[in-house]
Amino acid sequence: MNLPLARDYSRFARELLNAHPELDQELRAAGEGGWTREAMLRFLASGPPASVEAPSVEGVGRRLRQLRARVMLRTMQRDLAGLAAVGEVCSTITTLAEIAVSAGLAAIEAELAPPQLGVTLPQAGVTLPQAGVAAAAGGRPPGRLIVVGMGKLGGSELNVSSDIDLVFLYTEEGDATFTTADGRERSYHEHFNALGRRLVALLGQVTADGMLFRVDMRLRPWGDAGPLAMSIDALEQYLLVHGREWERYAWIKGRPLSGDAEALAQLGAVVRPFVFRKYLDYGAIAAMRELHAQSAPRWAGANMPTTSNWARAAFAKSSSSRRPIN
Do the bridges between strand 164-170 and strand 229-231 make them parallel or antiparallel, or are there none, so unpaired? Predict the structure, then answer.
């Protein structure tokens, strides 16, 4: 199928194809269908033997960037050729972001774990050590970093130019420390903030293979002034005392991308009462009216047909596909 639209209309596609002519196969494959989650996982698992059997953070990042180039190129081709609906584009890019977060986090966690302890992480399609199970000193192992997708990522609405909004949380708090695989003593707070910094760097770093996603962490409590990661108990205290109306609406789209069932149940018990208040007072109604008034000029300035059938259908589709915190 000869549809040179991506090459003709996208500088990104032209530069990518000039640097990697072999990716022309993605243009030819566009007529056969888009990238699925299963195909993305197979691509990650089919990397060089060394990167699959003993994946490093750098190796996983390189493989993810190679995957991103292929997914973006084919998705752009299908979109420009009229072969992909808006829903397919958003779903494909959202799936790519979810896999990037899961595989990247697993690789970073693996660097801190003793090699004899392993767990299969189906998101990445490889077996990696379980992080944080090194000898604990005065406390339990810290478990996994809980990554919550917010905004368009949480609502499964990413497009090819979107950044991703993330919030980092963990379950444990207190003064207990544990010993990492490299022999360092760390508190839970230090551990999870270090994990978060590594994950943001992995996702946003620009290398010879390009980048994965720009990461925006400003939806976390206190924004840029707050810690990169905080405990669920600290999140609860923040929401009770300082939570603002716009944060209630932001957390409607909050969707966890990592964490075990117990941790996610704990998170849901904190977020649900904050988002869905038991009583709706006049202050909340006034705040909603004010937020709506602030948003209206943006729509008007963009000259968007907010009341069109297309907008109503798109909103209904994205709303029905959201998976709230359970």
Answer: parallel
- In this structure, the strands spanning 177-179 and 126-129 are unpaired
Band the pLDDT of 142: cuts 50, 70, 90: low
Q: How far apart, in whole angstroms, are the C-alpha atoms of residue 281 and residue 121? A: 45
Measured distance CA(233)–CA(326) in Å, rounded: 17
Q: Are 221 and 188 in contact (CB under 8 A)?
A: no
- In whole angstroms, what is the distance from residue 244 CA to residue 240 CA? 9
pLDDT at position 299 is 57
**Residue 228 φ then ψ, to 5°:** -65, -35
95 near 159, Cβ under 8 Å?
A: no
Side-chain half-sphere of 262: how many Cα atoms within 13 Å? 5
CA distance 86 to 314: 8
- Among candidates 142, 168, 189, which has minimal Cα distance to 254? 168
State the Cα–Cα distance between residues 4 and 27, nearest whole angstrom: 8
Instruction: Tell me the per-residue pLDDT of 78-91, one tens digit each, with 9 for 90 and over.
Output: 998 899 999 999 99
Query: What is the C-alpha to C-alpha distance for residues 102 and 94, in angstroms, rounded to an integer?
Result: 12
Check the CA dihedral 109-110-116-117 and report its sign. Answer: positive
What the chain holds in terms of domains, given with CATH numbers, is 5-320 (3.30.460.10)
Integer CA distances (angstroms), 98 to 12, 64, 237, 300, in order:
22, 11, 28, 32
